[in-house]
Amino acid sequence: MLSRLMSGSSRSLEREYSCTVRLLDDSEYTCTIQRDAKGQYLFDLLCHHLNLLEKDYFGIRFVDPDKQRHWLEFTKSVVKQLRSQPPFTMCFRVKFYPADPAALKEEITRYLVFLQIKRDLYHGRLLCKTSDAALLAAYILQAEIGDYDPGKHPEGYSSKFQFFPKHSEKLEKKIAEIHKTELSGQTPATSELNFLRKAQTLETYGVDPHPCKDVSGNAAFLAFTPFGFVVLQGNKRVHFIKWNEVTKLKFEGKTFYLYVSQKEEKKIILTYFAPTPEACKHLWKCGIENQAFYKLEKSSQVRTVSSSNLFFKGSRFRYSGRVAKEVMESSAKIKREPPEIHRAGMVPSRSCPSITHGPRLSSVPRTRRRAVHISIMEGLESLRDSAHSTPVRSSSHGDTFLPHVRSSRADSNERVAVIADEAYSPADSVLPTPVAEHSLELMLLSRQINGATCSIEEEKESEASTPTATEAEALGGELRALCQGHGGSEQEQVNKFVLSVLRLLLVTMGLLFVLLLLLIILTESDLDVAFFRDIRQTPEFEQFHYQYFCPLRRWFACKIRSVVSLLIDT
After folding, report:
1. Spatial contact of 289 and 322, defined as CB atoms under 8 Å apart
2. Transmembrane segments in this chain: where (predicted)?
3. How many domains does the chain have?
4. Host domain of residue 238
5. How confident is the model at residue 528 (pLDDT cuts 50, 70, 90)?
6. Mean pLDDT over residues 467-490, rounded?
7. Cβ neighbours around 179 below 10 Å, total
8. SS3 at position 141
9. What pTM was computed for the model?
10. Same structural domain for residues 157 and 262?
11. Cα(259)–Cα(305) distance, rounded to whole angstroms?
12. Same domain, 219 and 316
């Protein structure tokens, strides 16, 4: 009896798994789930812990053993999706950026979105001109330390915070000036709301960049925003497509297709190549979810989407949540006392030094600060890491803003780019962002691959999400292979075409055979089925039967008798 109880308890323990979810303020939430627990169960536990009702904007992100990032699907088992050994580590992040973050109903929701955008600003995903950067940083400063106090905030106090990948002394003075003179009296909630209103006006608000290559092998970033689909290429935005113009999203292997129908019935197909088939499928699923969330009026309009080009081939996926309009309507009905918010602005952060009070880099003079060493492949990985998939490093509109970079070889086996802190300019992390023009300039992935320097430090969210140097080199090699052309994939494309044609012929022959069987049953059998009886009684069928089928049957019978008699005679 005792042994049975012990074995039963051991089996029960085996069915339970420990999960750790890293939150937006870098704190951690740990819980235990059953083996068959769905993603929705874990997400509901997390939202209950955060006292969050407007939860449809958020999601849980994880990385699989192959270093590919995913969003946790709420309708599937958590254990089966992660495919890794427990304990499991995941991250709570904004999945769908609200089109108007200031219109969110509850302060707790605005605070979480504020934390996400602050991370985007620090990791180089949210780009803006220097004046906007100073204002955003001043809002953060006001929200975290309150009004300027000469007794508590000595000269240079803003340098103890890091709001961007790198700072300049001029930018720090501008931040402190705005904080002292323009924001006095604002509460943390007011500063956060003003921060969200300003961030919303920037062109890269809500951008989640995915690294790809176009048909010519040029580097590009694909991104889904609250307003549409964006392609960033060649240091400028080459496409901006509204959601109502996107008619279809499809992928095959590493190839991603976007079907667009614009004014005057103009139809185009955009084709891009992802680094791996898994990355391409992740891109496709993100596109399906974003299009459903922002475009549809009701969740009942959501349909299962297939990536297949013909018949049985391909993946099937269906967005399972509510759409943006439903979320806003539901938020308007919330009636409760505002939950207490425990702001974590003073807690040291692993991935976002802007919320710490430690020195920004060092207390020694600026000209003596140590250089920041970032390897080329670490820079490449930083494009895949962070709150979503790929932080973007920007470049300036003028040569005067370009940082002076000195390179050295720190290791005989790995080339290292050295960026001296004293050579940094504000435009290294921020740049003018015209909203109404197509001249957004970005430093794309090709600069990483070709040996250009990178000023974005890697966001170290989890050991599982940070590949080793060997894995990073393998990823870089694969992307370089894409740059050199797609000669090796031409044969694969031909094979796919031949297989598609053969599959079409096979299915066509099968359909004709089925139609022939149905015709024989209708004309030659005596089955008294209501469906067959109704068809036989139609004038069209009677005409076909007497004018075409019967003569054709007599002709075949005559030919068969002739052949049989010929065989008998011989």
Report:
1. no
2. 501-523
3. 4
4. 210-332
5. confident
6. 49
7. 27
8. helix
9. 0.64
10. no
11. 14
12. yes
Q: What are the pLDDT digits (tens) for 547-565?
A: 888 888 888 889 898 888 8
Q: What is the DSSP string of 2-31?
A: HHHHHHHHHHHHHTEEEEEEE-TTS-EEEE
Which CATH number is 278's domain given? Answer: 2.30.29.30
Residue 465 lies in a domain: no
Closest C-alpha to 29, from 2, 47, 11: 47
Higher pLDDT, 294 or 374: 294
3-class SS letters over 493-539: HHHHHHHHHHHHHHHHHHHHHHHHHHHHHHHHCCCCCHHHHHHHCCH
Average pLDDT over residues 317-335: 93
Higher pLDDT, 207 or 424: 207
Distance between CA atoms of residues 195 and 268, nearest Å? 38
Q: How far apart are the first and last CA of the chain?
A: 87
Judgement on whether residues 40 and 87 belong to the same structural domain of the protein: yes
For the record, the structure tokens of 94 come out as: 């904004």
- The C-alpha angle with vertex 349 and arms to 346 and 351, in degrees rounded to 5, equals 145
The answer, yes or no, to whether residue 366 has pLDDT greater than 50, is no
Please report where in the chains the tokens 């994880």 appear, as a residue: 62
pLDDT for res 489? 54
In terms of domains, do 328 and 214 share one?
yes
Determine if the peptide bond prior to 338 is cis (ω within 30°).
Answer: no
The answer to whether the beta carbons of residues 176 and 412 sit under 8 Å apart is: no
The continuous run of DSSP H or E covering 403 comes out as none
- The structure tokens listed for 213 are 């290559």
pLDDT-wise least confident of 242-251, 329-338, 385-394, 499-508 = 385-394
Residues ≥6 apart with Cβ < 8 Å to 384: 69, 211, 390, 475
Q: What is the 3-state secondary structure (H, E, C) of 298-341?
A: CHHHCCCEECCCCCCCCCEECCCCCCHHHHHHHHHCCCCCCCCC
Task: Kindly report, residue by residue over 86-140, the tens digit of the pLDDT.
Answer: 889 999 999 999 999 999 999 999 999 999 999 999 988 888 889 999 999 999 9
Q: Taking a C-beta distance cutoff of 8 angstroms, is the pair 453, 150 a contact?
A: no
Query: Rounded distance, CA 384 to CA 382, Å?
Result: 5
Closest among 277, 228, 268, 289 to 95, alpha carbons compared: 289
Looking at the structure, do residues 218 and 318 belong to the same domain, yes or no? Answer: yes
